[in-house]
Fold each of these.
Amino acid sequence: MKDLENIRLVIEAYYADELKCLSIGHRIRKREVVTARHMYFYFADALTNSSLSSIAKHIGDYNHSTVIHGRNNIIALSQFDKTIARQKDEIEKLLTNL
């Protein structure tokens, strides 16, 4: 079982070029930051037993519905967006090696 902080660190490292010293918790709506944040929500929900509220609170002032939206967004996008699907697979491999 992974913990939320390790998942956050892996995702921020993976998206380091796009985030440019920002955290996934920043309330910026740039696509790159939002994608990284949604990936965090997806993997935090899939790989931990944490509640949706605790996942949201771990990176900032978000709520459980934001986690649901982000998770569902990654699931939907990965079905037809090859870039998102590739990123999801690559991050999953990184998290498996922890």
Note: The mean pLDDT is 91.
Amino acid sequence: MTLLVGGTALAVYWLGKRYEKSSAATIIIMDVRHAESVVQSILEKNQIDISIKDVLFENNWSKYKHLFAKDFSQDDFAAFNRFFESCAEMSYARNRM
């Protein structure tokens, strides 16, 4: 009986973690696409002003990156870190305008 309860609890935990990782991946993809669209609009206008959308509303990568540590190589992980650090710098610069 204890083994059955323990196995069920483990399965529920594992499925919850898998769902959390899937949700985090979706959120991060949405953040990347949004940042790309903002950068594209900056390049098209060839200027930055206060009317430009914020690049990052919230740095979700810093919140969820631990879920993907095993999935990426060190270089890939570093590239994601640099991308989101750059987005955060752009957001900070925009907010200072």
Note: The chain has a mean pLDDT of 85.
